[in-house]
Amino acid sequence: MALRSIAVLVGACGSPGTAALLRALRLNGERNVRLVGADMSERAIGRHLCDSFHLVPPGSDPEFVAVMRDIVERERVDVVLPQSSFELEGLASVRATFDVPVLVSSLETIRRSNDKAACYTLLHELGVRAPRFHRVSGSRAFADAARELGYPDRAVCFKPVHSSGSRGFRVLDPRVDRARQLVEERPGALAMHLEEVLALLPVDENPDLLVMELAVGRERTIDGIADGKRVVLGHPKTRESLRAGLAMYFETLADSSLMHLADEVVGALEIEHFFNIQLVGDVVIEVNPRISTIVYQDDLNLPYLGVKRALQEISDEELASLAARVRPGRSALRYFDQIEWGP
Fold it and tell me: Residue 274's domain is classified under what CATH number?
């Protein structure tokens, strides 16, 4: 017997992983899924790939939640699936008031995960390796923190306390050849000298920044579905070939130690639904309580399984039993595509 048709509201449908996510939800092999896209930009790819599209305010706008709620009612949405970190807090604050499942963790979980200083502090308390850091405001404190972490003898890095997708991340490296960067590299090179940053920052005012040790080594992530206490279903993967802060190549891994780490982090932060934990070497640098880039399999469609779980069509025990389907060594390659429309 065929399952009933459902409608999924996909937030931030201009995100880099949107096309693959929408395709996976649509080609689930079980039922018809009507895709409703929402984004703050009219140029979002979801406008062309979804069955319907709605322009919404930024996630930080006070009207964002009301607009999303209106879309749910008008489009008869069954599940809300946010993609952007900037949507999470607003939706988390009212998730219990929606008549349909909203795939987001509690407000406290979102705040602790998105606040990098709070997240790193918690990881340190757990005994999980996370960057040493200083939370600073203003150029004086910034310079002191960089030197305390070893600059100029070693490179350090910094980023805003609240950020997403490598926004605001820079490396302080006294050995970087800025002249070569200027004439040979694409715009957006990450490495800078301390003096350049100090010339840009106010003396003792905002923004709040984290000055951190620079983690080095192989990049890996753990992706999956959690129940607030443990990982229900997930797997690790590599994260490679970065362009503009986005990884373009991934390969699934079999690593029980990474899954154990994910269980610890998920339990401490009480993450529900989708999550992504990012490591550089053995250092956890990012915890995202949302869906991220997925390595898809015909027999293991994580986004669709997360939707089914939210609709109570599959139990956590049934989901956990699917872990044996994960194929280590399966690769995913992202690439640029384009569509055309208009006269």
Answer: 3.30.470.20
Predicted confidence (pLDDT) per residue in 115-164, tens digit? 999 999 999 999 999 999 999 998 999 999 999 999 999 999 999 887 76
Specify if 183 maps to a domain.
Answer: yes
Residue ranges making up the domain that contains 147: 134-213
Residues 90 and 176 grouped into a single domain: no
- The verdict on 26 and 99 lying in the same domain is yes
Domain membership of residue 128 (yes or no) is: no
Residues 188 and 238 in one domain: no
Q: Please report, for residues 27, 46, 127, 156, 224, the alpha-carbon distance to residue 22 in angstroms, rounded to integers and kept in the order given.
A: 9, 8, 38, 38, 17
Is the C-alpha dihedral spanning 94, 95, 99, 103 positive or negative?
positive
Amino acid at 17: G
Distances (CA, A) of 23 to 33, 294, 333, 336: 10, 12, 15, 16
At 36-70, the pLDDT tens digits run 999 999 999 999 999 999 999 999 999 999 999 99
Q: What is the pTM of this model?
A: 0.93
Tokens of 216: 């080095």
- Written as six digits, the tokens of 205 are 């005012």
Residues 156 and 209 sit within 8 Å (Cβ to Cβ): no
The tally of domains found in the chain comes to 3
